[in-house]
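ugh finaly. both done.
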Amino acid sequence: MSLSQKYSGKVLVPWFNSAEWHYVYSLVNSNKKENLVEALQLLHIWKIRTPLLSAGIEGTLILLDALGTDLEQLTEEQIKQIYALSLMRFLNVCATNNDKQGKFTKTMADSDLPKWLINIRHDVAHNHKLPDLNILDLALTICFNWVKYNYWESQKDKIVDYIVTNVDYPSSIVNVFTVYVDLILKVYHNQEPETYSQEFLDKVNLCIPKRVNSITYNPVGVVCYLEKLLQDKVTVDNAKSIRKVFAQYLVSENTLLSKIYENNDEGKRFRYMWKNLLNILHEKDMLFDVINQLFEETHNALLCNARRRTASLWINELFKALVKSKMIKKEFERISNDYSQLDAKTGKIVLKTFVDKNPHLKDTLDLEINNFPNSEGEEFLEKITENPDEYTKIYLDSVLLFNGKSQLFNKHTNKLLDAYNIAKIPQGSQVIYNLDSLSNLMVDLETTMDFNNEINNINGSTSTNSFLKWTPVSNPGSFTGLPLGVLPTQNRLTNPLLMF
């Protein structure tokens, strides 16, 4: 038997992840014979991994086995035998598979397949003569189109990855994290719970017990519960295996980078939305994983400049928050060595005094003052000075300040990076820009002025012009005799793909 596709619980599946399932989906929906052959091979691997397949996959395997038969070496009668048996197995295993068992004719009628297939199945099972080959071939084709629509098409948006980890609660901590991030974004955008997809609601319900108020009635309450769950369940032991997953999910165009960094009330509201989560990551020694992931975004030349700049401004914001926390800690230590014992009133006075002295840090995120991984700060400084780009200057001063470098060291470092960028950008002939780069430029043009103002406000200096790669041609004659797309500075010694 096979699993009913109406089964709603969790089962062990044969595909490695959702990407593998979607790859087979693309092969099954292809009209090319070689793709269908590859799909059949992968389905056989799935069958070995998990003999009890879902009804839709088992039916697809049966049909592709029959339709992929090498007809040249068989007689017509042999082909009819193969087609007939495959058709009957498909109808029994897949088309009439239901949680409620009943009369075959009735369950077959509910499947929206042609009624004449019932007669074909009856003739195959009970008559001495098999139906005509053309009829059997048509029946298999109809069944294959049916399973493509009723299983593959209906499931393509429902297949999700559930990462299993060694934890002692109903859902893995990774699923809790992703649901939490998605939910706070929905709350931020004032999205009504009634508009949440059923798939998302199912994921939420897997993370929360029944005693917690339903997300439909109290999404903010669910957010608070998930925060507490992350706080309690992320430990030193499991943080090692999930820190990279957390960082990659948080730093994406759909989450932390989904909104252009703005220094206004709306931008502040968006940044403060992440404060609790960032504090949890900070407490669990995972904040620098996020910072390093943001650094990877700034260095990804395939991304548009607006997204890379947003990532660099987030790096600056996080280091400013770390600097602010360090400074507040020093203020508390100046009053008492055991500042944790200070009363709330004294604590408020200290914070107010600090803000009055440092108004430029007033709107910076607040991070806990108990955890500062200095070694990671030094490693990050070393990384950005070894691999600078046009965005490094945006956050360089904050990184230097966090690491406690001297003013002279900071001055020399800034001069070196200025010289590096001036030398690097105009001589960027080794980088090949294409029409996609031009499209990215058009996106950048809409945000350049705002971003440059943000950078000037944050660092108090003029930002590097990120558009030096797009400069007017002062000497058109230098392109004489060059193939389209080749620059005068390029030759086969620096680019082996060029033949001149």
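ok and the 2nd:
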Amino acid sequence: MKLFVGLCVVGIFVACSAHSQPAPRSHPKDTKKTKDAPVPHSKKKVFNAVPHAKADYECPDYPCLIFEDTFDTLDLDTWEPEKTMGGGGNWEFQYYDNNRSTSFVRDGQLILQPIPTSDKYGEAFLSSGMISLWGHQPHNLCTGNAWYGCERVGNPTNFLNPIQSARLRSAKSFNLKYGRVEVEAKLPKGDWLWPAIWMLPKNNAYGDWPASGEIDLVEIRGNLDLQDEQGNQMGHTHAGATLHWGPYLPFNGYEKTMGSRDGNWADEFVTYAVEWDDASLRIYFDDDLVLETEPPAGGFWEMGNEDWNLPDSLNPWAGSSSRMAPFDQEAITFSILVILQYYIILNVAVGGTGGFFPDSWTNAGYPKPWADSSETGPRDFWERNSDWLPTWNGEDAAMVINSVRAYKLSPDQ
């Protein structure tokens, strides 16, 4: 079921719409699915995706459901498949494409399934083929050219991305300022998998990352047994939530806004949720409060500049009256109101040389197949596939999503 309800927020009209992507699969499937949450209002309206259109709907009470997708189908007007090999700045080993082998809906669940690139092209293709994602129609254009994201050619030294995967975003359909977003999901299990449920701003009103913020509801490392230097388990039973914010790189205050928990994230469905307003932001795993941030009167600049010691002239949030900047909706720049709303991203990444899988950690059974300093990471990773690929047990290695919902929590949101 897909529900979209239009909202008027601070004089800006926003329409909401959700879509899902279909495809039958033969893999064995965990069919556990919780009962749909009751809609907290009696008058429901279903809208087609009409961005920035006014809707004749007002919430009679709160919390008020304004967006819902329970994945009867995969609506590509709501969930745009990203198409890029860029690796998100981390030189990850997957590439994202619009493919029903890696993102599909079955039995009311959205499934994001990473698979070897060689399944489609053959193993020799990694060292000799070319992948072009440029496209020529609105629906098949490359979505990220940074880091050679739209076209690559493999050679014996620099392999093409050895994994195909999926990353879906709601940037062109549903965006939110304040309220509650919740995603009920079971996360993947398998060595070097990196699933994430997160949010980015539709417009970088305060500047490029991390100045306009990032909200990570959850991310894990899918490894069956990965330990840090102290022997703590950092694999699929350890999940984290994080906010990224800062004036510009390398200044990122995320270490002050992190939370983590141990649990059965890859074996059970959990509701990952963020709630935020003009004073605080909270992230929950089911009913467990994992991260709470209430910035001081000076906002995130005051929080971060205790360590950065930068001149106030570099504060990107100085023009906002909200202590929640950059996690607010509006920024005043040269007396112009700039909209800053967040959209939802669902993805399964793999590996990378950006440090998410530290070289100093210990993986049971075999060592990490590549070093973060390596210039041939994709090749190193793929050449050891006999070690890690057996840990990807069918759809246990997939992210399975039951539902995505968003709520308006009060009339002033």
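summary for the 2nd one i guess: Residues 299-308 form the longest helix (10 residues).
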